[in-house]
Amino acid sequence: MEIKEFTKKLFASAKEAGIEQYELYYMQEGSLRVSAYNGEIEKFSQSQTGGFGFRGIINGKTGNFYSESLSEDIIPLAIKGVITNCEVTGTEEKQELFPGSEVYPKVETYFPELNKISAEDKARFALLAEKTAKEFSPEIESVNTSLCDSGEAENYLANSLGLELESKSNYIVALVELTARKGEEVKEKGDIYIGHCFDEEKAKALAISAAKKAVSALGGTGVQSGKKRVIFKNEAFCDILATFADNFSGESARKGFSLLTGKIGEKIASEKITLWDRPLLKDGYASSAFDSEGVACYDKSVIEKGVLKTFLHNLKSAAYFKTKSTGNGFKPSYKGAVGVSATNFFIEKGETDFDGLLEKMQNGIIVTEVEGLHAGANVVSGDFSLAAEGFMVENGKITHPVEQITIAGNFYELLKTIAQVGNDLYFNSSAVGSPSLMFEDISVSGL
Amino acid sequence: MLCENIVSDILSAAVSGGAGFAEVFEEKTVKDSLSLINGKTDSALSGVEAGVGIRIIEGEKVVYVYTNKTDRESLLKLAQNGAQMLKGINKSGAYSFDKTDYSLKTLYPAEILPSEVKKEEIAAILKTGSDTAFKYDKRITQTSFSYLASTQNVLIANTEGLWATDERTRTRVFINAVASDEREKQNGYFGPGAMKGFEFLRDLDIVGLSNEAARVAVTMLTAGACPSGRFPVIIDNGFGGVIFHEACGHGLEAAAVSKGASVFAGKIGKQIANPKVSAYDDGTIVNAWGSVNVDDEGHPSQKNLLIENGILKGYMVDRFNGARMGAAATGSSRRQSYKFMPVSRMTNTYIAPGTDSRDDIIASTKFGIYAKYMGGGSVNPASGEFNFAVNEGYIIRDGKICEPVRGATLIGKGSQVLTDIDMVSSDLKLAEGMCGASSGSIPVCVGQPMIRVKEITVGGRG
């Protein structure tokens, strides 16, 4: 691994330049993607990229630098970048690097059998998914995307306190996006698979799922505005939970942006709610043995039966709150500084199946999809007002699709007022999970 | 950057599997950022991104390979891997290039490159902003201010002998003030930017913008819930243009149009909007955040008329999708970095000035919502269903702007809302944002004069 040679040289220069503590985080990724369109392979894409992040500490202050080039002439730039950035930072808490955890958990993140899936196999899956979707219904007008992508990544972490860790992971992704048409009305829907094994059956199932979503959404009507009972389908609530997840970050709390600051041990949600961060989850998309600072990962409940148990911490936020890092100090990539991220982050499932939720709701709306979260949701206040669509439910039965509605509320109030928790736990592509959830009183705007 | 010989060899290897066209895109980008939380420098980062993307097109098939290993051997091997995906007659050869350096006659000169600026100076300016916001009102409890600057050098060369180079320096600032009471928090936010160097930050009215962000936060803290239902909505100029960006702009990109996956496909020459609406996508505005001298496949940028008096006049077209729909490229092909295949995207997109006055628009509205500042939004180009958020809104009653309301989202279908724009004032203003799509996140401007939509679904909690 040429990175280890590079690290030695970089660390020698850092020591010479008087940087007190220093750390290198390296990541290398490769991917191979095949896309089908109109019965042919339309696009093929291959990549081999990587880079390193370098952070140094001088007088308790941190400076960061990153580069996609590993040539030796980048070393003086890296040293200068870190020193300059150390000089300008002004946080009061003294920063320190991490010497390493005593033990690291074993987490399976690399699946050798995935390498047996060739480019030809991926082409076959993408074409099959496209064909299956088109044959699903005459209302399927076009399959705009059918792709199959696989990738693998290698991480290397080393610091001046003697820490040295390596990890490797791989995955396969398949995505189908299509449009259904009835007269002038068009609906575009899609579905995505992320995981560690893929075959023809899964390709077909993915295509059918996407096609069903689009066809069943045709013929939607508006809804009279008012307060209504609402079931958020698991997928839709995953998106809402992901949007507000940052409020559980110790970094947000440290900066004073989270309304949960100071509420550890308090009841902040219905006792029906238990919220997990489980990096050791088998087959989880975000499973990991250690974070980007080298802290060992472990499973923990963030909310247990409605009570806030902990924030998620990196070294910096943990030091601020005089506690220990929870092993959530992740970097989004080699770029950027260490932040806080959840791993496999999900609401524990309940016992009621989806039909049971419909039965309990009797009359109301199922929200299958919410849009505009990056703008219509205020992460700080918890307020949201979002475009949505789904189905009307009358007397416990789905009657017809609804569209062009908005739903509005507040995330913190939602947590307190959950009426029913479904048993259909689902994880989205960001490793955020939720079962379907029912609420009594949601503002719905339509006609 | 790569030399001519290596580029020629890469192109030759790229078409060795039989392809009509190959292109090399190389970039080297230096980035700097700095962020202040509550007036203290919280993090400082600098970095270098560099790599090469190779695109190979044969008919309606395209191969894209990219790497940051930019030695000759790695690049040739990658080009050969890509070539193998296309089976045809080897078209390898040696290429000579007609070179254009767009940075010599640039639309966006940078006086002071980000690399020449002391970070202490930047931190001091941001600190002034933070102090201003805290002083505005005692209910301002947190601030975050950050600075992002980059200089991107690009080389685009292809088998047609094109060789284009450009240098793009961008500077942007994020200003965020949070107001709190015992129960909750609200924020006010601005993100001004330009294709300029440090002079942008030096000349920026940081005090004015910080006061304004604080004012929005405090106003929204005391605002009531926005009513729900269908009302007339007046959308102010500047970032209000996000409505056109979402409701129409994405649907005019060739990537959607060439697959028929847009409500505006096949509608050139047809009335798609109210006759009061004309709109442009203009990549040639001096120093504007969304401008490019040359697009990311080597076409010079241009001012594209999209809609004239409600009639659809043109799309934004890239090479690949243009070939599929039989349309010429319009200087609209863009990408976030070498990690993305370029595709038709917006640059600076706006509704052109009309003839109504602001006062008339407000005075002639009996009941409705006035959206002073907009947040972002999103759209599904196939169905035309869009949504976007109001960051600062007010009730309009009997032709007067009354109490503030919070938490409003506007939704609709693009084709309908374009028809429902029934008043357009003359005070065009642009505003900066980032736009995400298949070729990544790119800087764009949205813009418009004040407009009125005669009826749109407003989602609030009231």
How are the SSEs placed, and which strands pair?
The complex is a heterodimer of chains A (447) and B (462).
Chain A: H1 2-16, E1 21-37, E2 40-58, E3 61-67, H2 75-88, H3 119-136, E4 140-159, E5 164-182, E6 185-195, H4 200-217, E7 226-232, H5 234-244, H6 250-255, E8 275-277, E9 300-304, E10 307-308, H7 315-320, E11 345-347, H8 354-361, E12 364-371, H9 373-376, E13 383-394, E14 397-410, H10 411-416, E15 418-421, E16 426-427, E17 432-434, E18 437-445
Parallel strand pairs in A: 7-12, 11-17
Antiparallel strand pairs in A: 1-2, 1-4, 2-3, 4-5, 5-6, 7-18, 8-9, 8-11, 9-10, 12-13, 13-14, 14-18, 15-18, 16-17
Helix pairs in contact in A: 1-2, 3-4
Chain B: H1 4-14, E1 21-37, E2 40-58, E3 61-67, H2 72-84, E4 98-101, H3 119-136, E5 140-158, E6 162-180, E7 185-190, E8 193-194, H4 199-203, H5 206-221, E9 224-225, E10 229-235, H6 242-247, H7 254-257, E11 279-282, E12 303-308, E13 311-312, H8 319-325, E14 333-334, E15 343-344, E16 348-351, H9 358-363, E17 367-380, E18 385-397, E19 400-406, E20 408-413, H10 414-420, E21 421-424, E22 429-437, E23 440-448, E24 451-459
Parallel strand pairs in B: 4-6, 9-19, 10-17, 16-23
Antiparallel strand pairs in B: 1-2, 1-5, 2-3, 5-6, 6-7, 6-8, 10-24, 11-12, 11-16, 12-13, 14-15, 17-18, 18-19, 18-20, 20-24, 21-24, 22-23
Helix pairs in contact in B: 1-2, 3-5
